[in-house]
Amino acid sequence: MGKKSIHQELEEAMREKEEPAEAADKQSGKARKERRDKGKKLIKQRDLVVLLWIAQQYAARLDHVQDLLSRMPGRGGKQVSPTGLTLSAVLQVVDRWVVLGLVQYRRIYEGEPGWIWVTPYGLGLLQLAYARHTPAESTLPHLHHINRVRLDMERRHPDFRWISERTLRASQPRREEGSVLPHLPDARVCTPKLVAVEVERSPKSDKELDDILTELLITGSSSPNDGDPLLYTTVWYFVRPETRTSVEKARDRLPPDCQPRVKVLSLETLTEFPPEEV
Fold it and tell me: What's the order of all strands across the beta sheet hosting 187-190?
């Protein structure tokens, strides 16, 4: 037999074995025995898939969790309505996760959906060797846009593979104090070519941008197994209007053969900018 996937192992480990119901005795009219797990909150296959996604991204906002749950078959394998799960149904799922100790859920910003992240207990059940992490409020806007990019990419290109920054960080070997850490992009996408994803909300200095692009495209960064330096084929830079110019200028400072390998995209539309009128 082939090696079981992590999801198969988790599902088997966490699935509560149901007691077979007693066959009804038609002649005596005896009632069928109730299942011993009746009324219990159980972990489902859909939970494992969505919780893994949230853990990989550090955290996810409730509306993005709604999108994720709406992708998956509902109760009894039924397809979810084309309009997706209702907010009430999503909150019921999140409440079950909270009760089971799998996630924490907090409303942080007035007028915005709450945020969900996987607890250390949940990470253990998912067999993820991530460091414990409670997202800082200051990082949530940046994280929200990274999650937008991932959701959009998965809709457009389901065959692409997204490797999150958290996963990249967990694969790094321990380094001596004072050693230089490699730059980790916000994600790596295998298309199957290697693409670095960067979400640029706040302006960086020219030197910072030059160093990042040089490492990603020219010199490379050390690989976890001390092999050849890791080089990316392309960098996708998602920018706001206030960061677009600095990123485009950094691209234009690269050697001519490297410049086409940097795609500057709109963080608002997640697409290329329209051609500028001359």
Answer: 161-164, 187-190, 194-200, 234-239, 262-266
Domain with CATH 1.10.10.10 in the chain: 39-132
Which of 274, 253, 264, 109 shows the shortest CA–CA distance to 199? Answer: 264
H helix runs in 100-164, sequence order: 120-125, 140-156
State how beta strands 234-239 and 194-200 pair. Answer: parallel
The counts of H helices and E strands in the chain are 9, 8
How many angstroms separate the CA atoms of 157 and 154, rounded? 5
Nearest to 186 by CA among 204, 206, 156, 162: 162
**DSSP conformation class of 272:** B
Mention every residue, 6+ apart, whose C-beta is less than 8 A from residue 172.
Answer: 181, 182, 184, 224
Tens of pLDDT, residue by residue over 135-155, are 999 999 999 999 999 999 999
What sign does the CA torsion over 64, 65, 66, 68 have? positive
* Cα–Cα distance measured from residue 227 to residue 267, given in angstroms and rounded to the nearest whole number: 34
Q: Is the pTM of this model over 0.85?
A: no
Enter the tokens of residue 173.
């070997």
> What is the token pair recorded at 223?
């690989």
Q: Report the CATH number of the 39-132 domain.
A: 1.10.10.10
Query: 273: number of CA atoms within 13 Å, CB side?
Result: 17
Whether the ω angle into residue 241 lies within 30 degrees of 0, i.e. cis, is no
**CB-based contact 93:87 (threshold 8 Å):** no
Q: Are the C-beta atoms of residues 194 and 232 closer than 8 Å to each other?
A: yes
The 10s digit of each residue's pLDDT in 169-193 is 998 877 666 666 789 999 999 998 9
**Which structure tokens are listed for 234?**
């392309």
